[in-house]
Amino acid sequence: MNALLVQTGAALALVILLIAAAAWVYRKKKPGGPGIIDLVAYQPFGPRRGVAAVRIGREVLIVGVTNADLKLFRVIDAEALKTGPAAAVADKVRRLRKIKEGLDA
């Protein structure tokens, strides 16, 4: 009887480990593999409407998105985002999110 419980427990532990490993691999690998287009940010303004920042190569495109149309607002060099005023704003947003997470916990 004890051998059966040990065997069942070991099989259950193996299945749980396999599920955890599959979840870890899925999180690390984006579905569809690496592509040339990367969604940097998206701000919705209602159902099927919003503004997206999309990185393509060395450029970031600011695009308005609706259910019927895409409209290019601006093209920004990706390096300018890392060093310019946008980097300072991104740093402040990052710090505010950490503070919020600390308050929510």
Structural write-up:
The protein has 105 residues and is α+β, with helices and mostly antiparallel strands. The protein folds into two domains: 33 residues; 71 residues, no CATH class. It contains three helices and four strands. A four-stranded antiparallel β-sheet has the order 1-2-3-4.
Strand order of the largest sheet: 1-2-3-4
Question: How many helical elements?
Answer: 3
Distance N to C terminus: 45 Å
Give the averaged pLDDT, no decimals.
Answer: 83
The count of strands amounts to: 4
Helix content: 40-55%
Q: Structural class of the helix and strand makeup?
A: alpha+beta
Which blocks of ≥5 consecutive residues have pLDDT under 50?
none
Order of helices and strands: HEEEEHH
* 3D shape: elongated
Largest sheet: 4 strands, antiparallel
Total count of domains: 2
Per DSSP, what share of the residues sits in E-state strands of 2 or more residues?
25-35%
The Rg value, from CA coordinates, equals 22 Å
Give a nutshell description of this structure:
The protein has three helices and four strands, in the order H-E-E-E-E-H-H. It has 105 residues and is an alpha+beta fold.
